[in-house]
Specification:
heterodimer; A: 7 helices; B: 354 residues; alpha+beta
Chain lengths: 170, 354
């Protein structure tokens, strides 16, 4: 006979989780299926065992740290977001910040800082961006044509404009 | 002006005269925006959704965007009319199938569509034929600026424009370019090209976007990443590096085919033309492939009985909703095949250069 569920201490534990503590330490947990599902951990029968195991550990960790967190503005929980894929309101980005960020980074190739247009931006900086674009193209052409003197001039101009741009954003 | 006025013509993006128009069918840029002070749509009440709709429709009306444009209230349109807008790339399939208060403002020349209450509160879209991304960016940038003066969009210093789905957060930018790549398909090199696209984190879809297959060798290339790089950066990469390179590959494949398999190539092109001119029933997918081969023949100068613009127009007119609109009512799949064949026979007879 196997171990009993740590939660209800009645049913045999069939769900085995390894939670990673904030300290980085792994803690093993053993639950029965119904206690696990109460925690929002669900099991799909048709998945390959290896996949299932991986998902379990992952879902288990997430279940611990946030599925039930609720946005104080729109009332959506992080679990609901995970199920439907869209957020409830702009405040969710703040309320679920630490939970969302790893996901955002995964989707956007590691990025977590916006670069580019901001509302109410000075018109001048929009024009500057257009200028940067055309300078870059000219620079590429100059390099291709091996016109290095001209390329150097274009590069300096580009660096100047880009520095202005980043100053303005600070 | 109504839907019927639209269907009598094709939008600017299908006219086939833009830069690299023989291979690049069209370019499109869209920006996702949401109003401050409202939940995203999945969480909005019917009243809130109506308010968002009115606020944004008024914002559009208060700018010059309201002039020379049409407004379609999707709640009041029947399925075929909504599908016509989808086929013309003026709304998304998702918006057509959505619920509640939603609509689209379309410029008369169909180069601009402002979708209200799609997945986000506002999706701005501009599109033109050929490779025209810089022009499109300056247009959509100005539209976005004009609307920003009317309403406040949800924005965060760190994460940029906040969108309903975190996959669009940051710039909210999607750059899409529709390419016609029949020769890469014939030489079998298309798989290699598509793998390269995947490595570059690009999505490649069919003619009608998300969830559609690349029927008839038409491929829509778009960015998936929206955060961490500026709009200009994305656009520059598409217009100076990615797309020109794919166009070069396609040209090289066309060159190789005409040098090494010239008879087979001509057979494919002319056989397709023969079927289109004579068939009495034509299914949708089959027609797309036939038009694709004829389009390649025209672009390569191996068939000169019609022009690229006419073929582009046919690509649109053979779509189910356009066919049904032209016939004035609902048709079964079989009836559509008959109507499609008849329409193509008429058009080819009419446009055939003598």
């Amino acid at each position: 006979m196997g171990i009993l569920c740590q939660q209800c201490k009645q049913e045999p534990a069939t769900v085995h989780l390894t939670d990673i503590q904030p300290s980085g330490e792994p803690v093993e947990r053993h639950l029965c299926e119904s206690c696990a599902s109460q925690e929002g951990i669900t099991m799909k029968a048709h998945e390959a065992p290896a996949m299932m195991l991986e998902k379990f550990v992952k879902v288990g960790i997430e279940a611990q740290i946030g599925v039930q967190r609720k946005c104080s503005h729109c009332g959506m929980t992080f679990g609901e977001f995970r199920a439907q894929g869209t957020l409830g309101c702009p405040h969710d980005y703040e309320e679920f910040g630490d939970l969302l960020l790893p996901l955002i980074e995964r989707v956007h190739d590691g990025a977590s800082q916006h670069v580019g247009k901001a509302p109410g931006e000075q018109k001048a900086s929009g024009e500057r961006r257009a200028k940067v674009l055309s300078l870059r193209r000219a620079l590429e052409k100059a390099v291709e044509a091996e016109e290095y003197e001209q390329a150097a001039e274009l590069r300096d101009e580009l660096m100047r404009l880009e520095a202005e741009d980043s100053n303005e954003h600070q | 002006m109504s839907i019927s006025d639209l269907t009598a013509n094709v939008g600017e993006w299908l006219r086939g005269h833009g830069p690299m128009g023989d291979i690049v069918i069209s370019s499109r840029i869209r920006l996702a925006r949401n109003l401050v002070g409202y939940p995203f749509l999945s969480r909005a009440t019917d009243d809130q959704q109506r308010e968002i709709f009115r606020t944004l429709a008024d914002a559009v009306g208060n700018t010059s965007l309201g002039q020379n444009s049409l407004f379609f209230d999707l709640e009041e349109m029947d399925d075929i009319d909504k599908q016509v807008l989808v086929e013309r790339h003026l709304i998304s399939q998702q918006q057509a199938g959505g619920a509640g208060s939603r609509g689209v403002n379309v410029s008369i020349d169909e180069t601009r569509a402002l979708m209200i209450n799609e997945e986000d509160h506002l999706r701005l879209q501009v599109l033109r034929s050929g490779l025209e991304l810089e022009t499109l960016w300056s247009e959509i940038d100005a539209i976005d600026d004009a609307l920003s003066e009317q309403v406040e969009f949800a924005f965060d210093q760190r994460l940029g424009f906040l969108t309903a789905c975190p996959t669009n957060v940051g710039t909210g930018l999607r750059v899409s370019v529709m390419l016609h790549l029949p020769a890469l398909k014939m030489t079998g090199e298309i798989e290699k090209v598509l793998r390269a696209a995947k490595d570059l984190r690009l999505a490649v879809r069919g003619l009608f976007g998300e969830g559609t297959d690349a029927v008839g060798d038409f491929y829509q290339w778009s960015n998936q990443i929206t955060l961490g790089r500026s709009e200009i950066d994305f656009i520059e990469e598409f217009s100076t590096r990615i797309i020109p390179r794919v166009v070069e590959y396609e040209k090289a494949a066309r060159e190789a085919l005409s040098n090494e398999r010239s008879s087979q190539l001509d057979d494919k092109i002319w056989r397709a033309f023969g079927v289109l001119e004579n068939a009495r029933t034509l299914a949708s997918d089959e027609t797309m492939y036939l038009l694709s081969h004829v389009r390649m023949g025209v672009a390569m100068g191996r068939l000169d009985l019609i022009d690229v613009g006419t073929i582009n127009e046919l690509l649109l007119q053979i779509q189910p909703a356009h066919l049904q609109k032209a016939q004035g009512g609902k048709l079964s799949g079989e009836q559509r095949s008959v109507a499609r064949a008849e329409m193509i026979r008429n058009q080819l007879g009419h446009h055939r250069n003598n």
